[in-house]
Amino acid sequence: xxxxxxxxxxxxxxxxxxxxxxxxxLTLAYIGDAVFDLxxxxxxxxxGNTAVNNLHKKSSAIVKAPTQSKIxxxxxxxxxxxxxDIFRRGRNSKPHTKAxxxxxxxxxxxxGFEAVLGxxxxxxxxxxxxELVVLGIKKADLTDGL
Length: 146
Known about the structure:
By secondary structure, this protein is mainly alpha-helical. Helices cover 67% and strands 0% of the residues. The protein has a single domain, classed as Ribonuclease III domain (Ribonuclease iii, N-terminal Endonuclease Domain, Chain A, Orthogonal Bundle), CATH 1.10.1520.10. The radius of gyration is 15 Å and the shape is globular. The N and C termini lie far apart (31 Å).
């Protein structure tokens, strides 16, 4: 059995691991967005059977740029230097899409947050992802939504 979900997927598809330090911040953010979405959806689903429409409303309220930006700001001091560096790279990237229902700053900060999560996921550090997400949700006072 692989140590992480990513390693498990790579093994099943015969993919050799790559040096994630060579990945662009937008690539890290791409997978980080999916990881954050999966974590939030898992929390909501595991709290009990609920109408899918309600699940979608609750998850959409959290998995959006303004909320991710708020989470990132609340945990910045708790990030390691390496995580802050990845956050800055993601925030300073030049995404080819426009922010939807978010300011440009919120969108870029959300991209930085997603880049950190993507880096940790590809590194196989789900414990750290959960530590940052749980801490961010508490510090950003979002526990009511979950």
